[in-house]
Amino acid sequence: MFIRNVPITSLSSHPLNNEIYNGNMEIDDLSENIKRVGLLEPLVVIPSKKQKSYYVISGNRRLKALISLGFKKVDVKQVKLEENDIPYYIVSYNRTRLKKATTLLREIDILEKYYYTSKEFQNGKIDLGTNAELIRGDKRKVISKKIGVAEGQISKLKTIRKIRPDLLDKIDNDEISIRQAYILCERQLQEDQSISINHIKGKKSNSGGRFNIFCKSSVDMREIPDGKINAIISSPVFYGQNMRTYSKNPNELGKEKKVEDYISNVCDIMNECYRVLSKRGVMFVHLGDTYDKNGSLLNVPHRVVVEMMKRKSFILRNTIIVKKVNPIPNSVETRLSTSYEFVFFLTKSNDYHFNHIRIKSKTQNKGTSAPFHRGEQSGYSPYISDGKKNIQDFLDTEMTDIIYTSVANQIKSKKQFNLLHPCPFPEGLRRTLLALITPNLTPRNTIKKMSDFHLLDPFMGVAGLLFDGYSLGMSVWGYDTNSNYTKSVIKEFNRISK
Ligand SMILES: C[S@@+](CC[C@H](N)C(=O)[O-])C[C@H]1O[C@@H](n2cnc3c(N)ncnc32)[C@H](O)[C@@H]1O
Questions:
Q1: Greatest CA separation found in the chain?
Q2: 132 and 224 co-located in one domain
Q3: In sequence order, what are the residues at sequence separation of 6 or more whose Cβ sits closer than 8 angstroms to the Cβ of residue 53?
Q4: What span, in angstroms and rounded, lies between the C-alpha atoms of 79 and 94?
Q5: Domain count of the chain?
């Protein structure tokens, strides 16, 4: 039934509408449109409890726009609805609206309640109202159709709310996608299922032969004798990146309140690295910077390396820039996106092995006899990430201190290692570094066979680096506090070493 010229003051949003869409009612474009062409669709209303007053069921944004434009009267269409069906109609009328994740979840909740009531009706308890769709399809399918969102997205959103509700705001603000948030939740679930206190306390989980993996903090690597290790390549947890959570431990490295405490904790581990590194050993430490809450960079990587050198007599041979060729665009528009991180190249003396590959051009060098081809297992080169690439695709031909790499591909790494990790070593980076220090097995070298070369990653994660080293014939050592990673890594080493 049409009613002409209803005073705008007699109209109000239905309370349920406010509950679901509050905070999601931008009207600038709509007001502009109504100003130009008038109101094309009448508002749909039901009588409210007060006399001659109405609740708007469809057209709440239009109502807000009309009020802002100073309209006094408006035509409306009054409909009859069963009380039970109101939620269903409110959501249906808003099907085409652009919605934030939190709004979608409120719609899903409302519809689930509605359809639950419908189900109860099937058991003879409550009035079904006008809708019997559920009899034809299952609840999630019907809701997905109703709100215009794929079933998979609905289940992802519900998982995110359950596991990491803190990420919903980030999705609403376009800082991360539903898919990225869901990946973080999957990882959290994996961790929840597998972190056992015993492991975290640091039981030795495996040792012997060419792979030695420990589930414990590398602040104490007593399993490794002094000076045993020939090369350390590692990426410690970066400071304060709260999207990357590796465990439920509130005292986990990287979660320190003060950056000074983080620097001190990392350097305690670096002291242990110094102890286990041989005199002719080499070490690469990969670190990225963090912004504080005032939006200022903290200079964490350099502060760590300065502290390391204060504590121990490391020699800093290079500060290498790791340039991401496909940096993640950031949502902040008042500064440039961050596109690089650092790798510090440190040694204990000036007498160490380093493959300086003097190259005239990329093409000339392709397929030359690189030293690491002479590993015990032939046919493998750490240069090559996909059978096509060469070290010069990552380092430039002049062997300068910039390494070009793609952002680590979590999905690819998951396929490779059957485990999600928030920041596995990018393949190009780990293989380039390994290529630079893999020993040349010449008679003059003190390392006579590859298994005498000991490679350590004190923050191994899914251990891409160690698997590379192992394939070259090296003996590898890895530490991680997360038993989820160590268990999988041990399983994989057991499989490939058979
Ligand atoms: C940046 S990730 C390194 C990822 C690794 N490079 C890879 O390719 O998967 C840091 C790792 O250090 C681990 N970790 C955190 N605190 C640690 C500690 N005190 N000792 C050993 N590992 C630690 C985390 O669980 C995480 O897997």
A1: 101
A2: no
A3: 10, 11, 12, 47
A4: 17
A5: 2
Note whether residue 267 is domain-resident. yes
List the single range of 398-402, 442-446, 471-475 with lowest mean pLDDT. Answer: 442-446
- Whether 484 lines ligand 1, by a CB cut-off of 6 Å, is no
Share of the chain above pLDDT 90, in %: 30
Q: Is the CB of 426 under 6 A from ligand 1?
A: no
Does residue 31 have its Cβ closer than 6 Å to ligand 1? no
From ligand 1's centre to the CA of 164, what distance in Å? 21
pTM confidence score: 0.62
CATH code of the domain in which 14 resides? 3.90.1530.10
Q: What is the span of the domain harbouring residue 219?
A: 211-363+385-496
Does ligand 1 lie within 6 Å of residue 466's CB atom?
Answer: no
Which of 481, 484, 489 has the most ligand 1 atoms within 8 A of CB, as the residue to mutate? 481
Scan for tokens 């630079």, then name that residue: 436
C-beta separation of 236 from 266 below 8 A: yes
Ligand 1 near 482 CB (within 6 A): yes
Sheet holding 229-234, edge to edge: 211-215, 475-480, 454-457, 229-234, 277-287, 340-347, 315-324, 402-405
List the residue whose alpha carbon is closest to atom 24 of ligand 1.
246
- Does ligand 1 lie within 6 Å of residue 478's CB atom? no
Q: 379: alpha, beta or left, given left = phi > 0 and alpha = psi -120 to 50?
A: left
How far, in Å, CA of 286 to CA of 343, rounded?
A: 4
CATH code, 273: 3.40.50.150
User: Based on the number of CB atoms within 10 Å of its own CB, is 466 exposed (0-12), middle (13-18) or buried (19 or more)?
Assistant: buried
What is the whole-number distance in angstroms between the Cα of residue 459 and the centre of ligand 1?
4
Give the residue from 146, 162, 196 where a domain finishes.
Answer: 146
Closest residue (by CA) to atom 20 of ligand 1? Answer: 217
Flag whether 451 is in a domain: yes
Same domain, yes or no: 327 and 459: yes
Residue nearest atom 22 of ligand 1, based on CA coordinates: 480
Q: Mapping DSSP to helix (H, G, I), strand (E, B) and coil, where does residue 285 land?
A: strand
Ligand 1 atom closest to the CA of 457, numbered from 1: 6
Give 478 or 127, the one with higher predicted confidence.
Answer: 478
Q: Which residue has the higher pLDDT, 259 or 439?
A: 259
What confidence tier does 360 reach under pLDDT thresholds 50, 70, 90?
very low
Place of tokens 């020993």: 439
Domain boundary (122, 146, 170) is at 146
CA-to-CA dists, residue 472 to 298, 339, 375, 467, 497, angstroms:
38, 31, 5, 9, 13
Query: Is 284 touching ligand 1 by the criterion CB < 6 Å?
Result: no
